[in-house]
Write a structure and sequence with these properties.
single chain, 383 residues, alpha/beta, Immunoglobulin-like, Rossmann fold, four-stranded antiparallel sheet, 18 strands, 34% helix, 26% strand
């Protein structure tokens, strides 16, 4: 639905500018096609997916039979493998086999290549951040062509990484996706243990990753979200933990998960992440799922944005927020690359205007993300 609404918004904007662009309609329709090719909505795996009993057994068996995987990570990423271990201990039906620096071959088990061929603790430079790290990833995929998915998990880098460093991660993943079109590359947010200014930086970085995945139809394992939410059996409801800093209400690791027993957290947190991991793999295998975050566009209950097109010199983005909440507004080029983030933080209920006066003439997509991964979007045609 999102891409259909966006197509209509873009077409309306383009047609409204026919007189101004004087026959340049075809060029904008080509750009439009490029936008629509990438805007289908992400597959977001978050706390709503941490329900193992919802996954039909057929799809668990399909993962075990058909989806050998590559998983590279640091110590925090060990939370997922601990989770798989705990789940398997509860029921042998969820059998998995993990090979450290090799791909196991065990019938009836989900087989996982853990690490790279020459090293098991995988920091950013050993997977995506350097050319040599990219080559290590390529070696695994070239030498194990049966691998269907590849995933790398953050440690605490997002506590201090800049927007450009995170964009480098996204760009490297895009390169790998282009080179290995038959492999599903899984994007991951960073853990939510950081607080104060580090937690603010981490939250903003995770929002950048979420926005990119929403815009470009990616599979996102939302590690941070799984950190922040805990299912309270007493109330039979999910509880999110947040803290206040600098005027922001920032999601952070739930106190129920404070501990350092397994990968810098508790067994309960690991188990929750393992459930979501099985859920994600079942979706990749072909299951439709039931808990994947939905993406809606503006109506009375969700934030909405609009732009008067075409604009000359600068563009004004009009925002309507039904209640005070955290939002992120991002501007993307027609190739899908992040251009700027004019707003991130808490926005009061009501109508707002944001002036974009540093953009070069061209066509842009402006995207608003709010809590629960709601997405609203609009087109900017700037002369």
């Amino acid at each position: 639905m999102l891409q259909e609404i966006f197509f209509c918004n873009v077409l309306e904007g383009v047609l409204s500018g026919i007189d101004i662009y004087k026959g340049d309609l075809m060029r904008y329709l080509i750009i439009l096609a490029g936008f629509c090719a990438v805007l289908h909505g992400a597959t977001v795996i978050d706390h709503n997916c941490a329900v193992l009993e919802q996954i039909p057994g057929f799809w668990i068996e399909t993962v075990q039979d058909d989806i050998p995987s590559h998983y590279a990570h640091t110590s925090h990423g060990g939370q997922l493998t601990y989770g798989l271990q705990f789940i398997e201990a509860d029921s042998s039906f969820y059998d998995y086999e993990r090979g450290i620096s090799y791909l196991p071959s065990v019938a009836g088990a989900w087989c996982i290549f853990d690490g790279q061929e020459t090293v098991s603790y995988i920091s950013p430079d050993l997977y995506w951040e350097t050319s040599s790290g990219m080559n290590l990833t390529r070696d695994v995929l070239d030498n194990n062509p049966e691998i269907e998915t590849s995933m790398w998990c953050w440690c605490c880098q997002l506590d201090y990484y800049s927007e450009s460093q995170i964009q480098a991660y996204l760009d490297s993943m895009t390169v790998l996706e282009t080179e290995y079109p038959d492999v599903t590359f899984i994007y991951v947010t960073g853990n939510a243990q950081g607080t104060d200014s580090e937690g603010l930086n981490r939250w903003q970085g995770n929002e950048q990753i979420r926005s990119y995945c929403n815009l470009n139809d990616k599979v996102l394992y939302d590690f941070a979200d799984l950190d922040c939410w805990w299912y309270n059996p007493s109330s039979s409801s999910w509880e999110q933990h947040t803290y206040s800093y600098g005027g922001y209400d920032i999601p952070a690791e739930h106190p129920q998960f404070y501990g350092d027993e397994y990968g810098h957290t508790t067994a309960e947190s690991c188990y929750q992440k393992g459930e979501a991991l099985w859920y994600m793999m079942a979706v990749i295998a072909g299951w439709q799922g039931t808990g994947i975050a939905e993406h809606e566009t503006g109506n009375d209950f969700y934030p909405s944005i609009s732009v008067v097109n075409p604009s000359v010199g600068s563009a004004i983005v009009s925002c309507t927020v039904p209640e005070r909440q955290n939002v992120r507004i991002s501007v993307y080029s027609c190739s899908g690359r992040l251009v700027e983030t004019p707003f991130i933080g808490e926005m009061d209920a009501g109508d707002h205007e944001i002036v974009l006066d540093e953009l070069q003439p061209g066509l842009y997509l402006v995207v608003m993300n709010s809590r629960d991964h709601v997405v609203s979007n609009g087109l900017i045609i700037l002369q």
